[in-house]
Structure to design on (358 residues):
């Protein structure tokens, strides 16, 4: 009887390795604590007989998220009268527009599933894919910097038979398409609404610090591009992008789903703004939301909680909205997209795990 190598057990009962949740053949695997197996580049590695942690990125993200959430709580406490007035205004908002916002929220998960299907040439089960996007959105609100949604989608794609590397690049292809779409929408709306985006007044020292920080980020990114692992990962992403665009239906799903996802989230904010009578045009509200949500990505809080709230409220205020109306818009948007679906999404996540979809 052949002994398993490095603590990796062979799958039993004729099941494929992907169905068992193990890496595909051809991918390096290492044993973690207690005999657990993780792909190479994961959190654990074996050095001889000693198990060591590969990196502490999750811990750093969690620490930074905690700091941002504490700062957000402090700001909420300081401006509590404005928040309370905004919640009261939302309670008397137009019910028809709030219904439009709720329908747009439901449609965002379908568009997310469409974009994910467009990122891989292989067909995925449509019903399960939509359910996974709903569960991934809730998981994203309890883990920092998009780790929850990424982990759920990665697990689903590997369960569908895709190798681990292909699953990771599929997520990268979807993320790149979403970034490009957001940039194009911001550029188009900025041309249609000149002067809508107003930067806060900063001192010369603050602008200097910001310029140095931006330069450091650009230099770090440029240095990372010359690193071997990142260069190989980028090459795999480009190969997958080319494979997807050789299939017109997949390319249409990727770009159409990404565009509809961003547009529907903007529609939720617009509908809430119309419901409370925000004195801003829909195009201006959409531009403000897209810019604020893009900036909030730089702070890796779970689901953008705290960072997106502050950025969106500030952007609406700078665009000319009263403080109470801006607070009402942010509260309504977060209520529909985060707090109401959170518990059902976590329940769906548990059901998917029990049924071995994840």
């Amino acid at each position: 009887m052949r002994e398993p190598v490095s603590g990796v057990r062979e799958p039993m009962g004729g099941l494929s390795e992907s169905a068992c949740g193990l890496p595909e053949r051809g991918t390096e695997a290492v044993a973690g604590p207690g005999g657990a197996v993780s792909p190479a580049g994961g959190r654990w590695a074996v050095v001889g007989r000693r198990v060591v942690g590969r990196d502490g990125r999750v811990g750093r993200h969690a620490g930074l998220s905690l700091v941002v959430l504490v700062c957000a709580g402090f700001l909420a406490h300081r401006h509590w009268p404005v928040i309370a007035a905004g919640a009261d205004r939302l309670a008397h908002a137009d019910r028809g527009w709030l219904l439009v916002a709720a329908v747009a929220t439901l449609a965002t998960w379908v568009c997310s599933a469409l974009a994910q299907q467009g990122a891989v040439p292989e067909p995925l089960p449509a019903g399960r894919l939509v359910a996974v996007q709903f569960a991934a959105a809730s998981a994203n609100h309890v883990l920092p910097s998009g780790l929850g949604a990424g982990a759920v989608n990665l697990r689903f794609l590997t369960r569908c038979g895709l190798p681990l590397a292909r699953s990771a690049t599929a997520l990268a292809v979807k993320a790149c398409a979403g970034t490009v779409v957001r940039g194009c929408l911001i550029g188009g709306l900025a041309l249609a609404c000149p002067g809508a985006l107003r930067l806060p007044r900063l001192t010369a020292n603050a602008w200097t610090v910001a310029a140095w920080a931006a330069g450091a980020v650009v230099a770090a990114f440029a240095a990372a591009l010359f690193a071997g692992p990142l260069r190989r990962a980028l090459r795999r992403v480009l190969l997958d992008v080319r494979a997807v665009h050789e299939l017109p239906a997949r390319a249409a799903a990727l770009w159409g789903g990404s565009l509809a996802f961003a547009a529907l989230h903007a529609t939720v904010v617009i509908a809430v703004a119309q419901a409370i009578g925000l004195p801003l045009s829909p195009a201006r509200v959409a531009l403000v939301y897209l810019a604020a949500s893009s900036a909030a990505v730089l702070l890796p809080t779970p689901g953008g909680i705290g960072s997106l709230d502050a950025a969106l409220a500030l952007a609406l205020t700078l665009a000319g909205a009263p403080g109470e109306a801006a607070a009402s818009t942010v509260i309504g948007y977060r209520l529909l997209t985060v707090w109401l679906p959170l518990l059902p999404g976590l329940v769906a996540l548990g059901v998917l795990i029990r049924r071995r979809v994840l």
Observations:
- Strands lie at 29-31, 37-39, 44-47, 50-53.
- The first helix runs from residue 57 to 78.
- Residues 1-55 have pLDDT under 50 and may be disordered.
- The chain is about 70% helix and 5% strand.
